[in-house]
Amino acid sequence: MTSKHLLACLFCVCSCAKQEVFITPSAVQLDSEGEQWARQTLAAMTPEEKVGQLLMVRANVAFYNVKDPAWAELNQAVRKYHVGSMLLSVPNDTGTSARSLPFEAAFVTNQLQHESKVPLLFAADFERGLSMRFAGTTSFPHTMAFAAAGKLDYVRDFARVVARESRAIGVHLNFFPIADVSSNPANPIINIRSFSENPERVSEFVAAYVKEAQKAGLLTTAKHFPGHGNEDSDSHLGVARILSDAAHIEAVELVPFRGAIAAGVGAIMMAHVTVPALEPAADRVATTSHLITSDLLRERLGFNGLVVTDALQMNAIADLYPDGRAGVEALKAGNDVLLLPRDLQVTANAVMQAAETGELSWPQIDAAVMRVLLSKASVGLHRSKTVDISQLPQLLSQPADAVLSQQIADDAVTLIRDSQTVLPLTVGKVVVSTGHFDAPAAPDNDLLVVLLVDNVQDEPGRIFAREVHERRPGARMIFVDPNLVSGMTPEILAAADMARAIVVAAVITPTAGKVVKVEGNLTNAVSLDDASAALLNKLLAGTGDKVVLISLGNPYLAMDFPNIGTYLCTFSHAPPSQRSAVKALFAEIDVGGHLPVTIPKIAPYGAGLFRAKR
Predict the structure, then answer these.
(1) Model's pTM, two decimal places?
(2) Which CATH number fits domain 3-394: 3.10.180.10, 3.20.20.300, 1.10.620.20, 1.10.10.400?
(3) pLDDT number for residue 236
(4) Is the CB of residue 550 less than 8 Å from the CB of residue 581?
(5) What is the per-residue pLDDT for 430?
(6) Known catalytic residues?
(7) Secondary element (H or E) of residue 112
């Protein structure tokens, strides 16, 4: 690709793409024309092209110079290895994902489509909408907030927004909804990414999302089969084990997947978990288990759509198999798409070798390729494969979307306990205005807000702090993280003694690969680290009647602090949820959410105190 070509596509894409774009995507559907295209395309493929259709690699959205090695690598994946699909993502070079712009995303998908002989299927992890990856798009709360709000219409509306925004930038497949049941409070990676602990309720939300998103033209993925909820480790770090017996799996874990299949879900993602009740071989995760992938999912549950592995670069599977072998074993088990192999060349060669030796049969490979091609045809890729960038200002971040997101977050706020000694807070100005780096608080300081975050330099919690300051300009605002909390504890306790009300807001959400120190050991628990927990315990011991604990994420947080008098949950740290938390503190909204999960020794499923706005 020349510089001239690149610039021409950037500045003239509107005119050159007019004849081949979807203005309004059709519903996901497969017609006779699409089936014929898939058959003809498969018949014309070389063996190498067939293998390539089964591979999905990462495509980071960024500005690329035409001579950039990263751009050359993407082009090689398309031209040399004939990859059939790509996972649209953003760079993560510093450990923190830097969100790109949707214009860049649309440009990258268009360019890669031009490079590919067979249309590419672009996928993405838009669990909370496009804002997880791209700036300037609508931010939505985590999955569990929808169940706390309790309205199926909210997830339907959300599905339509995500479908519209995804298709606008060239994404055809979303790795959502999450069909895992939150049946284990110690689960470090599912947690608020699940709708609920109630399998029937999860099934209802999953089916609602699937139907509405696919009606709006976006393929959906139910994950992580056969259920990732009842375990206590992170499969990004190592092999996770589901200890449920077969009866529990049938009655709980499989219920949402049955609902998804009945709703016509386009794809199902396999979990890198061992399930002794279903697969006796200790070295077989669900992804590489024929008993689970083919016998259970395909035969018993009757799923005939696309089966996608979870990322093959995750330790849970990479630790079990050498590069390339994981892909072969996954295809033998019945998967169709190999997501993010650690080494593209090694995996492509390993699959080719397995086919040439008969370990994998060509009819099996052809069947998998056909499912990939039929999925592409179902979203109209046989008719057109690029998007019209000029439409993005009309399709993305519509004002009504932000209103919807805020309403969901407002309705999700759940009051679990209320000592009736602190809430509601009152709006007004106090005498002293200080911040973390300012002078010590004056004796008449009225409100202390402590934000427990992973890193004080990051964004989470900032919107919460700004919203509080708008209402109480003199509030003392202190951000602390695990590296600072021990040294700052005396200062915080002194400020607490002078305050009349203390708000402790904890940002605790499931994060892939995250480790914290709990009880002296490094672990991947979704909980406060030892030092932050010690601070909170001291606040509760000395000034507990003045403390409001807010979980901007994990609702199970209160299990570690059973004596808390006032406890509020938002089930998310997304911007609208931070705003909702503050609105609830000041009684600006009705608080009427209900727990989608049981918090052992704290509150039962469905609990939630109602408080009317002032």
Answers:
(1) 0.91
(2) 3.20.20.300
(3) 55
(4) yes
(5) 40
(6) 236, 310
(7) helix 102-115
